[in-house]
Amino acid sequence: MPNMALTTRFLKRLNDSLAARNLTEGTVALDSAAEELARLNPKMQHATDLLLCVVQWIDVGYGDHHLTDLLIKRFPAKIRQQMPLADYLRLRMAEAFRAMAAEDADHAIEILEFVMKAERELNDQKMMALAHFWMGRAHRKKGEYEIALKHIVQARKMTGALPGNAAATAVIQIQESWLFFQKNHRKEAWRLLDEAEAVLKNTDYPLALANIESARGRIVRRSGEYTKALEHFERAIAIYSARHPHHGNLARVLVNSAYVKRLVALQLRKKIDSKSRPTRSSDLGAPELKSLDRSLHARYQEICREAHDQLNRAEKIYSLNENHGGLGSVLMNRGQLHLDDGDFENAARIALRAYRLASEKNDHILMARARILQAATENAHVDEQLGEDADIAVHASTAMKYCDEALALAEHTQNRRLLARAYLTKGETAANDFLKEWDKAKECVALAMPLVSSGDRDQLWEELTALKSKIVQASGVDDALRAWSDGLVGDKTFQQVTEEFAEIVIPKVWEREGRKISRVAERLSVSPKKVRRILRNVGMLNAQDA
Prior knowledge:
Serine Threonine Protein Phosphatase 5, Tetratricopeptide repeat
């Protein structure tokens, strides 16, 4: 007996609400037909149309993968053998979405490739546009950004050509924006977000508006504007929490926010360390300095607690959604916080757990990140000189092994910043207190530099400039001065030699002059602007200090 609620009119209502991103209307319709959907008859007219439509509703925030599994099970092998091609392809599309939800991007791509080849016989533009959209997302998950962008752009063009799909096109633009951001086209990425928001703010789809705020937060974070990034993340968290308190995207923005809070805490700790250094003169007396130190330290601890709280909340959401990749990101950020706090054992344990979790899903990006954290943990043992000499040698060797593995994994992706971080970690390992392999460290810096954008001013850029400064101060000064005195400048221009000399002299004078930029400028008869630029270039001054 056919399900009376699952009529052609019901399907049209769902599709129209989906295209317009009217979540309230679609949710009411789906809730009212929940019992009939659970008993979906695969032989009824438009059964697979309804299946694919409901799966798309799950994608935009209705229900979860359990509903997908329930519906797919309504189509056993015996039924599939008798299905027309169009129905079979719609069923396969639903299975591709389920593979993506299970974090099996390779299987999703395999299914979608089959669908796209077979679909040419039917010329269903709507289904083809959806296949391109999901294909782009699957490749993005694997870190294959070039091919992902091609599919996303094709999906946007095809969707935009269909009538009544302005909202759906805007949703695709959010994905397109993120991929342009990965290619470091920030203005284009921001423009796409603005265009998408202009359309979606008139719809009943707050999830997309939260996605836009989250994306903006990541863009401004890259420029080192951590306070602004947190403002965007907080707006996204508020939107998600109001309508989708258990959505995976809420967990993701919580992790991003916790990451930025960690960076803010690191900046604060640098400030605490600088206050504790003796200077030639001070505007504050000893009691005032102690009070300030206590206040800064309390704020540092508070920010770290906030980061841990957000990670704990994200972990609960990811666990509920059975999202291994998300749980891995939580572990990575938690491990970094432990490492920053000097808890090397916990950091190492968490990094290993993240690596094993990533290996289960063959997630090269997360595997590489875990190996980088493991290398950093081993390096911390070396720098702290923990253990006997033999132990330190083992830590240094193990760190280098993890670096090489991280590089091999990162090279399987098109994630330039991941590769840059892997090179920098290897450079930091080569330059640690045990190995002191300065030539290898210089080579790693040279390989990392083209991968970091000139507009980046975040933690990655700070790590790059800090490593450059360490190499120059530890190994390069004597060699450089000796070469210059012999007239050996290589292919460098006089301006480049002058710039390198400034990077050696100005930081030293800055330290002697009580870390006062105005004094350095007066002492050397150079502009304060140049002093700030040189100090930033060598990693001794961040954007906020400047």
